[in-house]
What we know:
alpha/beta, Rossmann fold, eight-stranded mixed beta sheet, six-stranded parallel beta sheet, elongated
Amino acid sequence: xxxxxxxIAGIVVIVVITxxxxxxNIYRHPAxxxxxxxxxxxxxxxxxxxxxxxxxxxxxxxxxxxxxxGTTRGIANAISEKTGGDRFEIIPQDGYSNVxxxxxxEIRGNERPALTDTVENMExxxxxxxxxxxxxxxxxxxxxxxxxxxxxxxxxxxxFCTSGGSGIDETLPxxxxxxxxxxxxxERRISxxxxxxxxxxxxxxxxxxxxxxxxxTEQEGAVTQxxxxxxxxxxxxxxxxxxxxxxxxxxxxxxxxxxNQGQKIYxxxxxxxxxxxRVPLAICAHGLGGSYQSNAAYAEQLASHGIAAYCFDxxxxxxxxxxxxxTEMSVMTEVSDLEVIIEAAAGWEFVDENxxxxxxxxxxxxxxxxxxxxxxxxxxxxxxxYPAFLVGDAVHEQFDSLEEVPDRFQFIWITAGRxxxxxxxxxxxxxxxxxxxxxxxxxxxxxxxxxxxxxxDRAAEVYGDVEYYVIDGAGHGxxxxxxxxxxxxxxxxxxxxxxx
Length: 500
């Protein structure tokens, strides 16, 4: 009988775990368990229509886009300029008061929010680009409203997305749901304007450069590309240009390896191709168990707008390209790595050493905060995203004394070692980070389940000059609309401190 009860209890536990897992995935991936039809045309049908359209003497292009913070708008404007196409912004009537939660509900419920405007002459267009950010691994609901509002049969539909890391393939099930009988072709995730020429060439859609068509027609409801950039005033500081009006540049990648205590630090620099020989630099520090790829989306945004970025693996930080083991790593070994990078970067031929910014996420945030406090004369700006100022509390919660700390132990999602605890046991970050004398940008998500927002609340009180924003509904890591909101804050801040 006891054996039977144990067997039943085991089944109950498995069922409960399965339900919890399913519920979590339905929330994080709201389109995951919904049946999504795809009635778009076959590849051969699409190619036939594409060849037919491109053989016409006068091909008319529309670039329609949905943009929450301006990132997608910037890419759409560049596509319009390169193809000679008209622009139209997809704007929901009601907007979003809590975009993180409301967008999830819309996608999960397959909703179609009403839009503010319509394209009155849709029948005139042969090719329709449709751009959007990736929200919840899906297409934002307003985009589906747009797709279903017109007869697009016989037109070439070209989707593109902007994203902090997700690929466009993740969004295609929800996108294609609204493409019954349509020719969908050439979809691409675009992380910077530098990618556009190659992509448009592959598509065969090159059009006429904007400078050859200075009086380009704008659709009703679209954002006008202004000759004189629109500017806003913030807190009595210098004039701040809106994100979508910032200059956009191509950029290149360069591998850079450094050495600290006989071990390799591997990283990749994102270097914008501007008219300046030397440009500002953002050193991007990843979180616990991350890698040089963790902050690539921010690096792409920075490089696209004239700021070099260096993304790297901390030694023993979890990435696969630098030396060291996670059992040898601590917050202070990472501070040491940052100090080596700060010193080396001053001599890089493309870097303006008077404009070096630290950008740290999670554990990279506390690491960057400490490094900036110790080198305040060399660091011109400090961006902290959901910084892990809880590390000291976390190690005290896990162990009652230093004596009981083993050589290896499980810490959250990594295998850590004694140095991790020893370096933080008697250290209070809040007593040091306020030594940084420059202006700080501090961002945290209100729904962060890893690092409670209270830790950033306290940091904001410590810093003498800080801009602190809590992004409503965002968790530990910014994605979709939260990512775009964070990018907007970053570029406004970089202008305030005259990095750009």
